[in-house]
Amino acid sequence: MEVHQVRYFLAVCETLNFTRAAENCNVSQPALTRAVHKLEEELGGLLLRRENNLTHLTDFGRLVRPHLEQMIADAEAAKSTAKRFLQMDNAPINLGVMCSVGPIRFMSFLAEFHTTHPGCDVTLVEGVPGRLAELLLDGALDLAVMAQPEAFSHRLEVRALYHERFCVAFPMGHRFREKNRVRVTDVAGETYLARINCEYQDYLNERCREQGFAPRIGFRSEREDWIQTMVAAGFGICFIPEFSPTIPGVLTRIVAEPEVVREVSLVSIAGRRFSPAVAAFARAIRGYRWPEARDPPP
Question: 164 near 293, Cβ under 8 Å?
């Protein structure tokens, strides 16, 4: 069964006249008649009865007509959806973003992309790198922005976006305020507040052990706002990426000796073809000029 056969039959249903139906479909009457006969053969029964100059629907024709009309409606809807998708009108983009990526730094890029591609519908999904990688491999995400100290799976394509140093966050009045940078050894003896979703937590702990001490953990939390609120309240200090937004009462200094830097990357499935909208997003984010980092003021 072909779509044009169904269209020709429905045209005859509307006009009950083969000649006018052929004119409306912009085909010859013999071509329309052959298509309707072919449809009848495929469905296994007469759809139309021609008596002298009159054309009528058979009982079988009346029975299948609503189904064929729905078939054409579905085909038109599919074409319309495909056209909007290819023209990036209401085109979905499912983007994974690592929990520790600062939203303020990302807003300028998203605003610029939305201005140039207003028809794209971007859904942001937050998660830790391992979970985001799973969602990418399962097809639930198109792209992900993330970082991790170890190498990514060979199944993933990784494009570096920017580099970001780690800082020590501390409360007002803390001794670190007098420093331009904080050495890892300076953290020894401080109460450490652990950010559970930080992908560099084990890496940072290892840097501390290399300097001869283990962090003394006072509290752990998955929530960045809780950790920063505890820092501001004087419960302890923590390591955070330099582009993380901080609440009032929290100051930061760059970590030094050794400096800890992460590479934030755009990650996708190697070899997977992108939709036009996802391809446009990938081009835009790879070409975006991220603002340069600056040391916090004293």
Answer: yes
CA atoms within 13 A on the CB side of 80: 6
How high is the pLDDT of residue 208?
93
The amino acid that residue 247 corresponds to is I
What span, in angstroms and rounded, lies between the C-alpha atoms of 175 and 265?
Answer: 34
Which amino acid would we find at residue 82? A
Report d(CA 35, CA 40) in Å as an integer: 9
Tokens read off for 169: 């966050």
pTM: 0.69
Helix (H) or strand (E) holding 216: strand 216-221
**Integer CA distances (angstroms), 180 to 184, 221, 244, 245, 252, in order:** 13, 28, 18, 19, 10
Average pLDDT over residues 189-198: 93
Tens digit of each residue's pLDDT (9 = 90 or more) over 16-44: 989 899 999 999 999 999 999 999 999 99
